[in-house]
Design brief:
Strand 5 (93-102) and strand 6 (105-114) form a beta hairpin. The chain has 3 helices and 15 strands. It has a single domain (2-248), classed as YmcC-like fold (Beta Barrel). It is mainly beta. A 15-stranded mixed beta sheet has the order 8-7-6-5-4-3-2-1-15-14-13-12-11-10-9.
């Protein structure tokens, strides 16, 4: 559950705007998810986006809050919060916060992003590891999926099945490429009804948690919202699911076919 919720938190992330282009989301959007293993609910997650201020600037503030519930909470308590303050013009992160509590393990990390001082790279300052030089256009683990949702998914018809979209991010104080392999369109059954979705496999590292590079699947709604609807994690002990249960503040009506 610990590694699963950590993966959900950083893979389940969200997106931003560009002047003069139609957006896929808006401040005020909030989505609630349930985490379950078969019929057993083990956690909840909330992803929200709102207008806020930080470092004296008006920014967009994305927050992912994931936590265990019920028996899972009694066995291994998880309280993970990820936050990103994003420039609504450049769509790049200004500040990233990772605040996790998993059993006895706790970690709090703030990273500041400077995309302007150098023409060929970005300067990152972590309160834990100091200054780092990163590629231009570097994202944090939340802002990358807002970018993905707003810039890559609207042009998905140009992407062939099996092609991989890569976005470079900074996560746990190191470069972390998000590589999303496109698998086509599927109907997904949810508690809201059936939703037509684009399916992706984030390419994962095999080892202790995953058997293959395709043991994580994401489904984004195939409408104008491109909303993350469902995630499946196939790990050694079985399959965990993250599924949408409620939402508000979407820019467009979510296209649902009732049961």
């Amino acid at each position: 559950m610990k590694r699963f919720l950590l993966s959900a938190a950083y893979l389940l992330s969200f997106l931003l705007p560009s002047e003069g282009q139609a957006l896929s989301y808006q401040p005020g959007e909030t989505v609630n998810y349930v985490v379950h293993y078969g019929a057993i609910n083990g956690g909840i997650a909330t992803l929200s986006l709102k207008r806020d201020t930080s470092t004296g600037r008006e920014l967009w503030h994305s927050k992912m809050d994931a936590r265990t519930t019920g028996m899972a909470d009694a066995l291994f308590r998880v309280r993970d919060i990820y936050e990103a303050y994003i420039d609504p013009i450049t769509e790049l992160p200004v500040k990233s916060i990772r605040n996790i509590s998993e059993g006895r393990y706790k970690r709090y990390n703030v990273v500041m992003f400077d995309h302007h001082s150098r023409a060929d790279s970005a300067i990152l300052n972590s309160d834990l590891t100091g200054t780092h030089i990163a590629p231009q256009g570097i994202h944090d683990i939340l802002s990358c999926f807002y970018w993905f949702r707003n810039h890559n998914l609207p042009d998905i018809e140009k992407v062939g099945k099996g092609e991989i979209i890569t976005i470079m991010t900074w996560f746990t104080d190191e470069l972390y490429p998000i590589r999303m392999k496109y698998l086509g369109v599927e109907d997904v059954k949810t508690r809201q009804g059936r939703i037509r979705c684009h399916k992706f496999n984030p390419v994962t590292e095999t080892g202790r948690l995953f058997k293959t590079e395709e043991d994580v699947s994401f489904w984004f709604s195939a409408d104008k919202n491109f909303l993350p609807v469902k995630i499946r994690f196939d790990i050694f002990v079985g399959a965990f699911m993250v599924e949408i249960v409620s939402y508000e503040g979407l820019l467009y009506p979510l296209e649902i076919r009732k049961k």
